[in-house]
Amino acid sequence: MARYPRGMATPRSPKPAPVKAGDADLGLPDPPGAIDGIRVGVGGWTFAPWRDNFYPAGLVQRRELEYASRRLSAIEINGTYYAAQKPDTYARWRDEAPPGFVFTAKAPMRIVQAKVLANALGQAEAFVGGLSTLGEKLGAVLWQFERKLDREDFAKFVEGLPTEAGGRTLRHALEVRDAASVDTALVDLARAKNAALVFTDSADWPSFADATADFTYSRLMRSQSALKTGYAPADLKAWAKRARTWAQGGEPDDLPRLAGPAPQANHRDVFVFFINADKERNPAAAMALIDLLRK
Description:
It contains 9 helices and 10 strands. The chain is α/β, with parallel strands linked by helices and about 300 residues long. The protein has a single domain, classed as Protein of unknown function UPF0759 (TIM Barrel), CATH 3.20.20.410. The protein has an 8-stranded parallel sheet, with helices on one face. Helix 8 crosses helix 9. The longest helix has 15 residues. It is globular and about 50 Å long.
């Protein structure tokens, strides 16, 4: 898929009306929650440019998660890629987010970059054990593999990923960037584990939309600074249609796949995250997509 051209400049959105740092009520609408099982969000919640075009002026940084989790329906925690957090930290994030909101979390690089992945399964179990503190607000765990994979070792790792933690069933999403490992065998492996293959919407890495689990996971990477909503209206409408198709148990017919269609399902949960690219526009893109899904 071709990369969209980027704008030459980054127009600044008008700053929202000031809000007092200690205000208990931010004047927010009800949290969007899942719309027919579809959740939309961004990666992380701490990004300086968002204080000019997303967060209210004067909002203290410690309340940014509280705000973001009431405008979006999911957030992918990226900081865990560099260091897992203590259970107390996950518990604090859990309590700051409203009912119905969920987090996903990116697995630590020390695990996904291990020389022998199968030997890191103990670390994987410890990581998801800590994440389980999020309780019902843990939506999925993202495993991103950037290096060349040994197929047998990778299969052992995927097959050995824990299926539950803290008494809750776990969901795993696999993002494989080694083109040589992205084929029908990967689809079969993911389906056997009920793990989602991540659709990255990227020109830089393999990007296929085979449905392999009872949920789908998309990481959209084409936001443009010159567009107020990051994506053109027609592109957001297309993503709303695709998300609805996944949620209804089907597969979009305009995205590439590696294998034959998955069996029709009655329903799938759907995660759509706006990630990277011109990151300052990602919250606007996510909120625009939520608005389209509401209609």
